[in-house]
Write a structure and sequence with these properties.
Blueprint (H helix, E strand, L loop, with lengths): L12 H4 L4 H6 L16 E7 L2 E6 H7 L1 E6 L2 E7 L6 E5 L1 E2 L2 E2 L2 E4 L2 E4 L5 E2 L5 E3 L8 E2 L2 E5 H7 L4 E2 L8
Parallel strand pairs: 2-14
Antiparallel strand pairs: 1-2, 1-13, 3-4, 4-5, 5-12, 6-7, 8-9, 9-10, 10-11
């Protein structure tokens, strides 16, 4: 209604069948994993640090909101926005020291200085104001997609709080 003259890209029906999962399955181009029975395959947040890949279950991350982890001997921080629409990943070492965080709403607090941080890894209040965490590229993908390109990935174990 807001943009009545908009155009929408449509699949070309002549080529659509070539790319369907079922067609590929019938030609043995793909295999069917156990999660094919789910209405929607699970999503993960995938990160790679110094050549080591790790995946974090998206639904659990949204529920727990914050993960403090270590990948390739680098301390990392992953969290979701309060509304559960976005995931973020950062190196949590600042000036040679790993910071621990808690989260409330969309504000992070580091345990050492009680400084406040925003979703973008910027310290907005407290002793570390003006500091920034280094962002880590992260990808929200279906688990099968992530594994296709990162077959040696490890999965974060939320129950044991380690990988």
């Amino acid at each position: 209604a807001k943009y009545p003259d908009s155009l929408i890209l449509q699949f070309d029906p002549q080529f659509q069948k070539i790319y369907t999962f079922l067609t590929k399955l019938m030609k043995y181009e793909v295999s069917k994993p156990g999660w094919h029975r789910q209405v929607e395959p699970p999503l993960v947040i995938g990160v790679e640090v110094d050549g080591q890949a790790r995946a974090y279950d998206w639904d659990t991350l949204k529920s727990q909101r914050l993960v403090l982890d270590s990948i390739a001997n680098k301390d990392v921080l992953l969290f979701s926005s309060e509304d559960g629409t976005s995931g973020f990943a950062y190196h949590r070492t600042l000036n040679g020291e790993a910071l621990d965080f808690t989260i409330s709403g969309d504000t992070l607090t580091d345990s050492k200085t009680q400084s406040k941080w925003n979703l973008f890894g910027q310290c907005i209040e407290g002793e570390l104001q003006g500091s920034s965490l280094t962002s880590i590229q992260n990808y929200q993908q279906f688990v099968r997609s992530w594994l296709t390109f990162h077959p040696d990935t490890t999965f974060y174990d939320y129950f044991n709080q380690s990988s």
